[in-house]
Each structure stands twice: as C-alpha cells, then as structure tokens.
Amino acid sequence: MRSRGAARWIIAAPMALLAIATIYPMLYTLNIALKSRVDYVLDRGGLTTDLNFQNFVDAWTQANMGRYYLNSIFVTVVSVALILLISSMAGFALSHLTFRGSRATFLLILAAMMIPFQVIMVPFIKTLSDFSMINTYPGLIVAYVSQFLPFTIYFMTAYFARIPKEITEAARVDGNTIYGVFGRIMLPLGRPALLSMGILNALFCWNDILISLLVMQSPSQRTLMVGVSALRGQYPDNVPTYLAGVLLVVLPLIVVYLIFQRQITTGVTAGATKG
Amino acid sequence: MTALLGSRPDVPTDVRPGAASPKRRPRRRFSLERSAPLVLVFPAIAILLVFRVYPLVLGVNFSFTGDQELNGVFIGLDNYVTLFTDVRFHAAARNVIVVLLFVPLEVLVAGILATFIFLKVPGHRFYRSVYFLPVVLSPIIIGAIFNIVLAANGPLNDVNKALGLPVIDWLGQSNSALPSVLGVHIWATFGMALVIFLAGFSTVDQELLDAARIDGASLAQTIWYVVIPELSQTIQFVFVTTTIGMLTGIFGLLYTMTAGGPGAASYLPEFLIWKLNGEAKPALASAASVVLLLLILVIGLLQIRVLRRATKEV
Questions:
Q1: Residue B110: band (very low, low, confident or very high) from pLDDT cuts 50, 70, 90
Q2: From the list A107, A127, A207, which residue is nearest B4 (CB)?
Q3: Residue A272 — very low, low, confident or very high, per pLDDT cuts 50/70/90?
Q4: Which domains can be identified in chain B, with CATH numbers?
Q5: Contact A250, B117 (CB under 8 A)
Q6: Which residue is closest to A103 within chain B, CA to CA?
Q7: Is residue A252 part of a domain?
Q8: Can you give the C-alpha Rg of chain A in angstroms?
C-alpha cells in the first residue's frame, strides 16, 4: 500500500487544492482588512499595496473590543476552571471509588451529553431567571459549566479509569485520605487530560454565540463573539474595518491552535474508537 | 443508547444516597472520609439535575401550556397543532431533510481524505493541520468571512464570471441559501470528522493489513474488506456526531449569514426555537424543542441500528 509513488502524488494534488480552499478565505479577509476604504471600493480583489493597520485600530477603539475581550476572558477562565475542578472530582469518584448510585450517576451524565442545548434553551433561560441570574456573569458561567460538564466528566472518567487502582490503593495505605489521593495523585496524573479538556472547553466558551446571546442582553456585558456579530451593523458600508475586527478575534484562536493542536485533537476524538 | 432512554426515569433516584446520608448519621457517625465519593460527585449531579434535567422536564411540561394571556394554563396539544400549521415549521422540517442529505457528503469527504492522510500522501501532516484549522474558529467568524466570500460581488462569483458561469447571490436566493450555509458548515467541520477517522485508523490492526497485502488484496479490496469493517465503530460515531452537529450546530452560521432567510428558506429547528422564544412565545418554542428532541433521539437510534446491520453483512 505504501509503494505507489506516482498515485500518491496524484492524490496529493486535489488535497493541496482543498488546503488552499481552507486557507484562502482567511487570507482574503486579511488582504481586505489591510486596505483603506477607498482601495476596497476601487479594487476589491487586488493584493493590498500599503499595509493599512488603521482598520484594526478603528475596530478596536470604536467597537469597544477591549471590553468584550475582558468579558470573554473572565467568563471563559472561570467557567473552564469550574468545569475542570468539578469534572475531575466526579471522574475520580466514578472511576476509582465504589458508591451507591455510581451507575445511575454515570447514566445521568451520558443522558445529559445527548441532550443538545437547543432542546432545553427556553426552560433553561426560565430556570436562570428564576434564580435571577439573567444578565449576570454567574448566569453565563453556570450556563457554560452545565453545558460542557457532561462530556468533560465522561472524558475524565475514561482517563482516570486507565490509571491502575493499585496506585490509589497504595496511596491510601500510606495514610492519605481520599481527598489527599485526589489532590496529590489524581490531579497530577490527570494533567494531560486536564490540559486537553481545558483547551477544548475554552474554545467552546470563547466561540459560543447562542448561550451568550440568550443570557447576556445588555451591550456592556456582551462577550466577544456577540460584540463582533454586532460590528456588522455598525459598519454596514465599511467592510475593511468590520473584517479587521473579525481578524482581531481570530488571532488568539489561531495562536491557541498552533500551540495546542495535539491536545485539541485528543479531546475531540474521545469516544470514537471504544465502547 | 437504548440504555440511556431507559435510564431517564431512574435519574432522580441517584441523588438519594447523597440526600439520605444525614439520616444514617445516628447509626454510623458521619464521616467526611466515608462520604467522600458523594462529596466528590455531588457538585456535578447537582448542576446537571438543576440545569439539565429539570429544564428538560419543565420544557416538556411547558409545551402543553399557553403563551401570553394563557401563560401557565394547560392547553393540551394546541401548541403542537399551531406548530404543525406554521409555515416556518414546515420550512424547518423540509430543511432537516436537506440537512440529512448533506451528512453522507461530509462523512464521505472526511473519510476519503482521512484514508489519503493515513496512507501518508506527501505532505499529510500539513494537510491534517490545515483541514482542522476551521474547527477552532467560531461560527460567527466563519459566517462573517463567508458573507464576503459568497456575496453577489464576492470572490466566488468572480471565479464564476471568469469561468463563464452565471453569477449567483448564494445567500440571497431561497434555493441556494441553505445549501450554501451547509456547504460552509462542511467546510468548517470536516476537519473534525477527519481527525476522528484518523483516530479510528490508528486502531486498525496492522497485522490484518499486512495479511491482506500478502494475500494480494488490491487497495480497494483492503479498504472494503479490512478497513471499513474494522472501523464500523468509528464510522457510526462520525455519522452520529456529524448529524447532530448539523442539526444543532448551525445556529451561529444561520445567525450571521442568512438569519433564516430569505423568508423562511434556511430555517432549521434550532433557529425556529430561538426565534419563537424571541417572539415571546416560549411555550410554542418548547413544543418545537420537544419535536427536535424526538428527532435527535430517533436519528441517533436509527443510525446506530442501520449502521450496525450494514457492517454485520460485510
């Protein structure tokens, strides 16, 4: 299967085309974002000649992007921290401890994983408003935590289950409490899984639009994605500035992707190959 | 998944051990150590029961009550009747069928590309990274970029013009709006399916591949008789996640690209639910949610059954 040299090169050609189709829209966007408005109107497709960074400055200052960035960072960091803490606690209990109701708990988690947010969004918002958490950061955080928790618990349970029970039992014999075993043994051993889930959940929270639109209704509390989608209305006739705003949002995502590519793919492929 | 469905009535019972522990206190001294498993699992259970299970029950309940002046009043199946006569619901239902037709396309594209990458075509590592990149981008960003790319005066139409093809307002015409959005969705997510396929490939038994080669099997035979049966689990998984992704993960694109339009041409159930809720008809939206839930459960069950049978015959 590995010998057909020419065939492999022939296959590579359409793959290269597809790779160009994947990258091209982003380069096209970058090209336009660097144009002045006049250049854009006169010559849309042509390669930009002067590197005009004014659009980025305009998008950042006029559209309140700094504020949205802070909002998104705050909500994402707190949500991910809570998701990781709660899910590793539950994953440890489900994989290494025996207790009544553990099977039912696991089934609850699987069931919660299967129910998409859209199905419960109306009553969910009602539940949040019963707790008067609409338009508050805790409300948005609780929404993200409950949304992304089930899969993360599933992942952490599967990961911890691969750690031999002898290790935790030996640690207990040495006089550790269960909490000590969790803090001193499981969390350090679970670091790769926590990193993978941390990155993936951070992307989910950062990129979300639907939950954020529903929970945060006042403009100053918008997250970055909602803020960017509103930019379009702000600059209906100034495409370069709008796209510069879009690119300011893309940049951190691409950096995260380049650094953590392996952790992200580990996260999304969980569950594909077993049980 | 059958187990999942069966499990729902049991769900409340699993909190009982936690709730019951104070009662045991007189007999056994309460100990933080002994109740550790419940302490560890309690936050997860509490959050899921309050913010997942309770809303689900509330929503089903809600769908049998009225909106506005009939708020909270039991009206039986009236919401469902209203829904089934709503043109936007018809559009959403029709569009679900279109969506389901696009699922095999995405799975096929991802499967073929994953096979090539698995066979280590020149530059396979680079392709893998590039194809996956859009997965990390928000639908909002992707929608913004493709609004420009697909515009009537955008670069795609420049290509059309250069090739002598007609210029199409991709997002502005009712027959091309939804397929365009789905095309963009595939562009954005096939990398995910591809990576899942690759994870599956890495578990294919190398000895089986070697045996097939020694027996003189062609590449097509190897794929059909060895790789596909070995991958049945992965293929199922990709089908299910792709379908559910298409039915519940396009909101961001619809929101930025078409807003459901033109008219109701690109409505999908999730967009309809959001729209009805925004029109102060939460009970009607809940009825639509129940329909979407049933759809997702049915599709999940059907797919697993069909695929299981299909792979057993091979």
A1: very high
A2: A107
A3: low
A4: 2-62 (no CATH), 81-313 (1.10.3720.10)
A5: no
A6: B14
A7: no
A8: 23
Given this model, what pLDDT does residue A87 score? 96
Q: Which residues of B touch A125 (CB under 8 A)?
A: 277
Encode burial over A23-46: b for 16+ CB neighbours within 10 A, e otherwise: eebbebbebbbbbebebbeeebee
Q: Which residues of B133-167 are buried (b: 16+ CB within 10 A; e: fewer)?
A: bbbbbbbbbbbbbbbbbbbeebbbbeeeeeeeeee
According to the model, what pLDDT value does residue A149 have? 95
User: What is the domain range of residue A195?
Assistant: 64-234
pLDDT confidence tier of residue A13, bands split at 50, 70 and 90: confident
Asked if residue A248 belongs to a domain, the reply is: no
B138 touches A209 (CB < 8 A): yes
**Nearest CB to B121; choose among A12, A99, A256:** A12
User: Residue A165 falls within a domain, yes or no?
Assistant: yes
Interval B104-127 mean pLDDT:
88
Among B54, B145, B153, whose Cβ lies nearest the Cβ of A29? B145
- Domain count across chain A: 1
**Quick check: B237 contacting A, CB < 8 Å?**
yes
- Predicted complex: ipTM over 0.85: yes
How much is the pLDDT for B47?
A: 95
Query: Average pLDDT, stretch A43-60?
Result: 78
Please name which of A227, A249, A224 lies closest in space to residue A73, comparing C-alpha atoms.
Answer: A224
Mean pLDDT of chain A: 87
DSSP B50: I
Residue A257 covered by a domain? no
CATH code of A164's domain: 1.10.3720.10
Interface contact A118-B138, CB threshold 8 A: no
Verify whether the Cβ–Cβ distance A112 to B48 is below 8 Å: yes
Residues of B in contact with A214 (CB under 8 A): 274, 277
A210 membership: H or E segment, kind and range: helix A210-215
Least confident residue range of A169-183, B92-106, B219-233: B219-233
Tokens of A14: 């359409």
Taking 50 as the threshold, does the pLDDT of residue B1 lie above it?
no
Q: A250 to chain B: which residues are within 8 Å by CB?
A: 137, 141
The residue written with tokens 């939950």 in the block is A211
Scan for tokens 């309050």, then name that residue. B50
Rounded distance between C-alpha atoms, residue B135 and residue A22, angstroms: 11
Cβ within 8 Å, pair A15-B285: no
CA B83, distance to chain mean position in Å, is 23
A261/chain B closest Cα distance in angstroms: 8
Q: What is the mean pLDDT of residues A208-229?
A: 88
B55–A25 CB contact, under 8 Å: no
Q: Is B49 at the interface with chain A, CB within 8 A?
A: yes
Q: Nearest residue of B to residue A179 by CA position?
A: B36
> What letter represents residue A229's amino acid?
S
Token pair, residue A76, equals: 């994402």
Of B7-11, B98-102, B134-138, where does mean pLDDT reach its minimum? B7-11
